[in-house]
Amino acid sequence: MLKLPIYLDNNATTPMDPRVLEAMLPYFNERFGNAASRSHSFGWTAEEAVDYAREQIAALIGANPKEIIFTSGATEADNLAIKGVFEMYAEKGKHIITLVTEHKAVLDTCKHIEKLGAEVTYLGVKEDGLVDLDELEKAIRPDTILVSVMYGNNEVGVVQPIKEISAIAHKHGALFMTDATQAVGKIPVDVNADGIDLMAFSAHKMYGPKGVGALYVRRKGPRVKVTAQMDGGGHERGMRSGTLNVPGIVGLGKACEIARLEMAEESVRIQKLRDKLEAELLTVEESYLNGNKEHRLPHVANISFKYVEGEGLMMGVKDLAVSSGSACTSASLEPSYVLKSLGLDDELAHSSLRFGLSRFTTEEEIDYAIDHVKVAVEKLRDMSPLWEMFKEGIDLKSIEWQDH
Amino acid sequence: MAYSEKVIDHYTNPRNIGTLDKGKNTVGTGLVGAPECGDVMRLQIEVGEDGVIQDAKFKTFGCGSAIASSSLATEWLKGKSIDDAMKIDNMDIVEELALPPVKIHCSVLAEDAIKAAINDYRTKNGLPALEEIK
């Protein structure tokens, strides 16, 4: 039986895997100890659980367990990495390079340190969302300390050439950091093969709980240090003070273990469903895929249906939980900056829907989504003056629109 | 953010979708908004010799609230004299549809569309435009 509404917004957050919840539960009550308590078994039990989770997480990303710093999520990990590197390596330089399509957790952190004297280059991307490697290399200066490029984009799913980017950064003596929130647990990520020095990720994007994430900080070749942004008990090798969220950490560990064991098979199945959804929806007249088709996360599809406004479209598929690049609800009325960075007209950005599939998405749900999106697009085009003009052969660009 | 029942009703069963012959002198057309802003409304009225609006049609590119605002506007316009139609205020639309603050611009757009349609009708018939659009 098809259960409505259908959740296809898994880039925002994923439901927890029941196996993750089960692993976490004992750590809310009977195993409630503080992992920093060294004097009794309550503390040791908690610490053991944390150590085990560290191993599970490290195994997924090819790291050493000691290189995992627990945080409250990827936003905090991004903050710690960028602010921490900026402070720690201030003597070496103050220049940082990132992309305009990064998550706000990176962009706003960069804006913040600019006020503290950092110089940040925000590189544009090509029309397919990928970074231009030559441009990146040209942007590097002798005082560049960090290159921060996200692994997989949250809106369009584009996967950047991480190995090539890190090689360029290292060639010029800069550290390489990546916000891999959408990638870890979805596609193979290996900190050594990929040349990653710092990496932020989060549990709730990979079937784990909200409120917990981690920053990978390389310990060897080179040994990377970040200045703590939270002062206190000196937890996490002094880089992140605060009592550890033991149940959350256990959940993140379990989520990573499941991902490591099941990702290969699972991503094939999810991608097949995504490809079906995408192929069907792209048969709709004047529909466009956003972002590079090939270098992409397997579970994301971002499609613009021209002459239909995204929020209106979402209302027409009210039993589908998706998101849109339209920002009709935002006070600024600005559509997605990521889609605009890909060179999309505002109009096409307003017309986009993002579908994010998950481990729990079924073919029946995808079939439902295909049918209902098609019907809604048709209905809205019947009432769209722009569609009528397009059909009459009127060039919309020739009209003098009034802004309001 | 949840939509009000009235917005959902107008969105689900929009009144008076369609196109009137803009070549006719009795038809006034208002096209307001911009595609890059995410909403465009086209509102049309057909006016009888007595100055009463006989028919009203709309097409809207926009969110549910924009569609509902224009649908409601056409409902209100039918049977109104031009003078009374000029008095429709965007806040009446806000109230009727229970629009949240972030959606007030949709009602402003609908009011603009009404005035633009009336002015188009007046200009076509050799009358001066009535009021500057907000």
Structure description:
- The complex is a heterodimer of chains A (404) and B (134).
- Chain A is built from 12 helices and 13 strands.
- By secondary structure, chain A is of the alpha/beta class.
- In chain A, strands 2-8-7-6-5-3-4 form a 7-stranded mixed beta sheet, with helices on both faces. Chain A has a 4-stranded antiparallel beta sheet with strand order 9-10-13-12.
- The mean pLDDT of chain A is 95.
- The radius of gyration of chain B is 14 Å and the shape is globular.
- In chain B, a hairpin with a 4-residue loop joins strand 1 and strand 2.
- Helices cover 42% and strands 19% of the residues of chain B.
- In chain B, helix 2 crosses helix 5.
- By secondary structure, chain B is an alpha+beta fold.
- The longest helix of chain B is centred in the last third of the chain and has 21 residues.
- The chains are: A alpha/beta (404), B alpha+beta (134).
- Chains A and B meet through helix 8, helix 10 and helix 12 of A and strand 1, strand 2, strand 3, helix 2 and helix 5 of B.
Q: Indicate the multimeric state.
A: heterodimer
Biggest sheet details of chain A: 7 strands, mixed
Please tell me what the overall shape of chain A is: globular
Largest sheet of chain B: 3 strands, antiparallel
Biggest sheet: strand arrangement of chain B? 1-2-3
Q: What percent of residues of chain B are in strands?
A: 15-25%
Q: Can you count the helices of chain A?
A: 12
If helices are DSSP runs of H or I spanning 4 or more residues, what is the number of helices of chain B? Answer: 5
Biggest interface pair, residues each? A-B, 33 and 34 residues
Short description:
With 404 residues, chain A is of the alpha/beta class. Chain A contains twelve helices and 13 strands.
For this entry, give a set of tags.
heterodimer; A: 404 residues; alpha/beta; seven-stranded mixed β-sheet; B: 134 residues; alpha+beta; three-stranded antiparallel β-sheet; 5 helices
